[in-house]
Amino acid sequence: MLARRWESLILVLLVAVCVWAALGVDGFANTSNVSFLLLDTTEIALMALSMTFVVVAAEIDLSVASTLGLSCAVLGWLWNAGLSIEAIMPICLMVGTLCGAVNGLLVTRLGLPSLAVTIGTFALYRGLAYVILGDQAVADLPAAYTTPATQPLIPLVLVAALGVGAAVLLHATGVGRAVFAIGANQEAAFFAGIRVKRIKFWLFVASGAMAALASLILTFRYASARADNGVGLELAVVAAVLLGGVSIFGGRGSLPGVLMAVLLLGVVRNALILADVANEVLNFVTGLLLVASVLVPNLGALWRRRSTSQQEVP
Amino acid sequence: MTALTEATRPGAGGRGLIDRLTRVRELGIVLALAALFGVTGAVNPSFLSVGSIRDILLNSAIVAMLAVGQTLVIVTRNVDLSISSIVGLTGFGGALVLADHPAVPIPVVIAGCVTLGAACGAINGLLVGMAKVPALVATLGTLYAFRGIDYAWAGGRQVNAADMPESFLALGSRSVLGVPLLALVTLTVLLAVGWMLRNLRSGRELYAIGSNPDAALLAGIRVRRRVMAAFVANGALAGLAGVMWAARFGTVDATVATGRELDVIAAVVVGGVAIFGGSGTVFGAALGALLLTGITSALAVLRVDALAQTAINGALLIAAIVLDRLLALRVAGTLRRRRYRDAR
Amino acid sequence: GGTTKGDAAPQQSSAPAATANPNAPLKQGLKIAFLPKQVNNPYFTIADGGGANAGKEFGAEVKEVGPSDANASSQVSYINTLMQQRQDAIVISANDPNAVVPALKQAMSAGIKVVSYDSDSGQDGRHLFVNQASAEDLGRTEAQLIAEQIGGKGKIAILSATPNATNQNTWIDFIKDELKKYPDMELVKVAYGNDDDQKSFTETQGLLRSYPDLKGIISPTTVGIAAAARYLSNSPYKGRVKLTGLGTPNQLRKFVKDGTIDGFELWNPGDLGYLAAYAAAALASGQITGAEGEKFKAGKLGEYTVGAKGEVLLGKPTVFTKDNIDDFNF
Amino acid sequence: MDAVLALAEASKSFGAVRALREVSLRLVAGEAHALAGENGAGKSTLVKILSGVHRPDNGRILLDGAPVDFGRPADAQQAGVAVIYQEPTLFPDLSIVENIFMGRQPRTRFGRIDRTAMSEQARRLFARLGVHLDPEQAARGLSIADQQLVEIAKALSRDARVLIMDEPTAALSGNEVARLFGVVNALREQGCAVLFISHRLDEIFELCQRVTTLRDGTLVAEHLIADITPDDLVRRMVGRDLDALYPKQDSAPGEIALEVHRLTREGVFTDVSFQVRRGEIVALAGLVGAGRTEVVRTVFGIDRQDAGWVEVGGRRLRPASPTAAMAAGLALVPEDRRQQGLVMDLSIERNVALTGLADVRRGPLISRAAEHARARDWAVRLRLKFARLSDPVGVLSGGNQQKVVLAKWLARKPSVLIVDEPTRGIDVGTKAEVHRLLSELAVSGVAVLMVSSELPEVLGMADRVLVMHEGRLVAELPRDEATEESVMSAATGRTAA
Ligand SMILES: Nc1ncnc2c1ncn2[C@@H]1O[C@H](COP(=O)(O)OP(=O)(O)OP(=O)(O)O)[C@@H](O)[C@H]1O
Ligand SMILES: Nc1ncnc2c1ncn2[C@@H]1O[C@H](COP(=O)(O)OP(=O)(O)OP(=O)(O)O)[C@@H](O)[C@H]1O
Ligand SMILES: [Mg+2]
Ligand SMILES: [Mg+2]
Questions:
Q1: Which of A66, A227, B174, C161 could form a disulfide with A125 if both were Cys (CB 3.0 to 4.6 A apart)?
Q2: Would the CATH topology of D3-90+142-238 be identical to that of D256-491?
Q3: Can you list the domains of chain A with their CATH numbers?
Q4: Which band of pLDDT confidence, cut at 50, 70 and 90, is reported for residue B17?
Q5: What are phi and psi of C135, to 5 degrees?
Q6: pLDDT of residue B13 exceeding 80
Q7: Is residue D420 very low, low, confident or very high in pLDDT (cuts 50, 70, 90)?
Q8: In chain A, what percentage of residues exceed pLDDT 70?
């Protein structure tokens, strides 16, 4: 029920910002800008979907952006090697899946904290990307793929479809229930016969696969496969997930909330840039938004407790 | 986090065993360090030369300082991602003052930076301790926010070595008895904090908080105050690290230390500090920092292909964590069997 | 089957259709936006400052926008927003020459003039490229500088930016080529400091540890050379190991004076921005279209001619030594 | 005689739930005061008010007759109130001795913690309580019982004026309880005021001089122990006459349902073999730390055995897989409901559904209706006291939480039911309830294996009693041979059967 309140909070904020931007910022409310805006959020949205599951299960995956980079590198490398793009894409997805699997194994089999593991693979996967593609930038990708990627239709349909799927999976199926239980108290979940390790493993795998999928879209959108594609995206994804109301301690969160958060961050960014707000302010606002989203409700609670306790004092 | 399958239970006569176990935990890193220096030294003896060792100490001084601070926070089951931004802010601020107001005495500048850092820490502390914002969220936010302030302040300006007084830059390169000054500073802080964490009530209470926050409240520990203190201390150390950065690298702009937070957390974790709080020592964290910077230097010395360095770095980091974990599991196993024999 | 590299259609450059009117006056109140690799970067602050000055001279409103992190694709969303703002011209230094092309193309088709400076974008993504100094000049002169500093013999190394840095990589190619003329000199390693101060610092240490008999270092990046200089200046290698490359006088004055560096080179970034702004204005005013051979005036810098592939060359780089360094302040 | 600590017309509500209504209570020096009441009657709430965890909505706390305001637990501790909470509150990463003295460690002149002095005090304490735990070992992995003992040591270590104990004996077996009472009585004679909560009436009558009864948050009555019989007390608590506490029906044992063969887990238990037939209740008795929980954990696949195997219905179980065990019809009600039994943040209904996610599905999706029905059904059968089934389990009273754990497993209709301390913290009324339930299940052909530290329960319910000592099975006693003496002597390792 906490999640409910949260979603509505984010939604209100989102609407408010959109209204403000539409009225106050010229160049915001027109189809081409909106489609830019949506496109810009595609990769983050995709990775946020799987990240939500991971965080709800009280784990975290900081290696997503590096996985994305590695997949990009593989794509460029194989493309230069003359493989057909249709053959390369599934390979990239497999690479992502593999990256996720490695994280999953280290976390579940060795019981290592995911934060530590994925900080490691964060460096490892990015490094491998450099090893594979080195300093090249592969740009001569087929227009048949790059052009549609710059149109909002396909990415949006993809995000929407996967989004709905993920939401149902998390909120209406046994697996979802299990994920929440694991996040809230994995020992109890284990005692209830839930396959904690197996489920966690697959969550990481999914996370890797999503990163790879995102990498395809990103590469085609920018018509450029490089080892350093998507550097720093992991924080954006985590930020979106947290802003979306997912508890970093696991066991709490909602997918619609996260998707709205992704959108919110995208809109704010776009609107502020249009309004010629300096980049530093932009970072500042992002940070503020993140803190405020938790702070406001908490302060409310805090204040209420204070006031009641005062009248309690005899 | 409660162990899933194996409930490790140090049994009767566990005293010696516990000691062994704790020793082993740091031993893991020490072994890794030995291996690193051994191998690298074998390939290229100059790596073990006095000069080289000094450079490595110097390089790790700052990360180690940050790792010590971070340990204080992580032990309380929190985390501070914003340190990199605090270092950036204080580092640039300090340099700017030195450049524009040469009149201001250096100790004042240093004190100022430490205070500024402590202030940033206090903001984190308020958010986490008082307003109950999860540390990761709060400090991810302030990570952006502090950096934003930094950028705004700098406005594209860069302070160069030439602009700062020699006497200040000298602090970055001076050695005392052959040991770099910065390394000594870090060492002093390390020993002091280490002693406090082990021997003072306040220190132990940090562990208690991290181990079970609710119980800590029931035990009458002033949780908020302690958490607050941890963040402030961490901020202050980050501030100090900022000055050290300026003194060491001479050229500073708004981007100083960007992204370093992950290195520091990595160091702390490699150092055997439980990411979920309650256990670990600053010494381990410092060793972790030494190991990571050692790796970077080693790769540079070993003529490893530049493109491969990041990858190897990551691989070794994981290897270190895994090694540490395997050792821990091993000890747990032997403990169980040992008690079995005792029970007979 | 499937789409492979082979059958990827070669991207034909969009030939400038419009005709130029050489004596059209510069329009008033043009909106020109500078989009550097990274804002808050001293180098670009100076360059874009130059652009702003030019703007004042011909009454245009010049602004600087951009990401604070210099990674590949972060510029694209800025290009899009600049399009929304209907700027007259975009002056860009591309982080990823390819990634920006699609967006720039859209901008161009929306009637916006695009000038790339400092770091070119894909050719069909801009009308003009204002080149700070031909890659060839830079590469070769750097090789020559180090050669004369170490007397033409001995081991040298290069401390570059990131492995992906387009500029540095082209320069390095020319450095290598020039070095062929010096049989006694050996390039032992190209190290990468990722334009990160600490990394560059550590890499320098590494170089000297692993090649104790190193004679010289070329660092074709302002960050790298500063870090290297700082390490050398308080190490025993000071003066023994020569250092040259690209740097700004303010950054390196101290080291030139204390003898760590004999000489290094750079173009004047202020002039670069200045020229780019004039080029943009000339395009937006229809003086030129970007076709080879066209001429335009760039205020105090005089007249420039558009070269092959729509390139405009700023001029030869300046070499800074202890004799002339105090004449410069940037 | 004047009250050291007193509660005057205190009330406390949690949202809709009125946990406590105008309750007054006086704790007098040198007197042990019992607090009796069903699960959810408000006992722990009262304790938490006296210890400064909760502030009363209205009403006052009086210390030596003067009103005080316990804002934080620290305040109560300053006032000399020592508390043993119903649920253990230990620091798993710290050593037992640090747990005991946290915040009050003895210090040298320079404020440095004096570790030797600390350990010394701890050892003396344990000696007094007859606890055989190594003070230097970490608290992680201690069984509930051991945790309980540490909590007791913690409370006794601060020589308090008021000692409050919320079900300290719930997980303890006979002689630990005896030891505890010995110490408490000593303290009481030194003039300490004691508040004692337990669902074991015999303990109340043994230890206390006065008893206050709560029902639904209101004070029913206060008596001198001398003036009241256990049956009256029960009537006051439950508000009705109570049917037999051990309604064991006889049932003919069927074929073997569970066979444990030479099961060994090094360091904890060794070479344990036994069988449980359909329709019989087998009790696993023993002292704390005998390894009973360990055995059932391993049988259910939580831990991996080092040797031996488990057969259910003649088919061997895959080791270390609760999922496999459940598929084979096994169910385990664990001893630690907070950590292992329940997901505190999840609602009652979701907790109940957790063990049968497959049963509450419509197609691939979860059916809230089915989920709700499943929970409602068992909530009624177990007389669960709750506001809404969608409330998080965490807000339920201790005993009611235990009921949810039972519901969660009984809803699976297991063929072999393993219960570890099934009535821990459950009130007499419900206890009878649970016992009838177990007995019915047995009659209906379920094989029941019951770990219990409560001897009367063992003797009252079991068809056969297995006794463990130091990780070994030392005796197997059929119902008619199982007596207090025979079981205890086996449990303490005096005779080996
Ligand atoms: N934090 C809370 N939030 C909401 N309701 C609560 C909370 N704590 C207790 N309650 C409710 O208050 C009532 C009294 O709970 P309490 O724990 O005092 O019962 P109790 O007498 O200790 O029962 P038991 O014998 O099972 O421990 C119960 O209905 C319980 O659900
Ligand atoms: N063989 C053994 N030797 C030493 N200590 C043991 C042994 N078996 C169990 N213990 C310790 O005794 C404690 C209780 O273990 P366990 O819970 O398995 O026994 P139990 O009979 O179920 O006790 P409880 O009454 O707590 O259920 C644990 O802390 C465990 O470490
Ligand atoms: Mg209770
Ligand atoms: Mg037990």
A1: A66
A2: yes
A3: 2-312 (1.10.3470.10)
A4: low
A5: -50, -40
A6: no
A7: very high
A8: 94
User: What is the tally of helices (H) and strands (E) in chain C?
Assistant: 9, 14
Q: pLDDT tens, C202-240?
A: 889 889 988 989 999 999 998 899 889 988 988 888 889
Q: What is the DSSP letter of D303?
A: S
- Tokens 């740009």 belong to A139
Three-class secondary structure of residue D322 per DSSP: helix
Q: How far apart are the first and last CA of chain D?
A: 54
Cα(D241)–Cα(B127) distance, integer angstroms: 55
Give the phi and the psi of residue C248 in degrees, each rounded to 5.
-95, 145
Q: What is the dihedral of CA B186, B189, B191, B194, to 10 degrees?
A: -120
Angstrom distance (rounded) from CA D30 to CA D3: 10
Q: Which residue in A204, A202, A203, A230 sits closest to A216, CA to CA?
A: A230
For chain A, the distance separating the N- and C-terminal CA atoms, rounded to the nearest angstrom, is 34
Name the residue at shortest CA distance from atom 24 of ligand 1: D39
* Sequence ranges of the domains in chain D: 3-90+142-238, 256-491
Q: How many residues does chain B have?
A: 344
CA distances in angstroms from D376 to D86, D382, D397, listed in the order given: 27, 10, 18
3-state secondary structure at position C155: strand
CB pairs under 8 A between B and D: 122
The chain D residues in contact with chain A (CB within 8 A) are: 55-58, 60, 67, 69, 71, 302, 322-323, 325-326, 332, 334, 339-346, 350, 353-355, 357-358, 361, 364-366, 408
Handedness of CA C216, C220, C226, C227 (dihedral sign): negative
**Is the confidence at residue C83, as pLDDT, over 60?**
yes
CA of D421 to the centre of ligand 4 (A): 7
pTM here is: 0.87
Which chain C residues are within 8 Å of A274, Cβ to Cβ? 81, 84-85
CB B136 within 8 A of CB B81: yes
Given an 8 Å threshold on Cβ–Cβ distance, is A279 in contact with C102? no
For residue A137, list its beta bridge partners.
A226
B333 touches chain A (CB under 8 A): no
Sheet containing strand D3-14, edge to edge, reads D17-28, D3-14, D58-63, D66-68
Residue D374 neighbours by CB under 8 Å, 6+ apart: D349, D352, D353, D356, D359, D360, D411
Residues B286, B188: Cα–Cα separation, whole Å: 12
- Does residue D398 line the site of ligand 1, with CB under 6 A? yes
Taking CA atoms, D344 is separated from A183, D175, D347, in Å, by 11, 32, 8
| A280 to B152: CB separation less than 8 angstroms, yes or no | yes
Task: Judge if the beta carbon of residue D396 lies within 6 A of ligand 1.
Answer: yes
Enumerate domains of chain B plus CATH numbers: 26-331 (1.10.3470)
Identify whether the C-beta of residue A241 lies closer than 8 Å to the C-beta of residue A51. Answer: yes
Q: Counting atoms of ligand 1 from 1, which one is nearest the CA of D385?
A: 29
Task: Annotate C203-246 with DSSP letters as a single string.
Answer: HHHHHHHH-TTEEEEEE-SHHHHHHHHHHHHTSTTBTTBEEEEB
Residue A287 scores a pLDDT above 90: no
Report yes or no on chains C and D touching (3+ CB pairs under 8 A). no
Q: Average pLDDT of B80-109?
A: 94
- Among all ligands shown, which has an atom nearest to the Cα of D386? 1
User: What is the CATH code of the structural domain delimited by D256-491?
Assistant: 3.40.50.300
Of the candidate CATH numbers 3.40.50.2300, 3.40.50.300, 3.40.50.10610, 1.10.260.40, the domain formed by D3-90+142-238 belongs to 3.40.50.300
State if residue D39 touches ligand 1 by the CB under 6 angstroms criterion.
yes
Residue C93 distance to chain A (closest CA, Å):
16
C44 token code pair: 């670009």
Contacts of D57 in chain A (CB under 8 A): 312
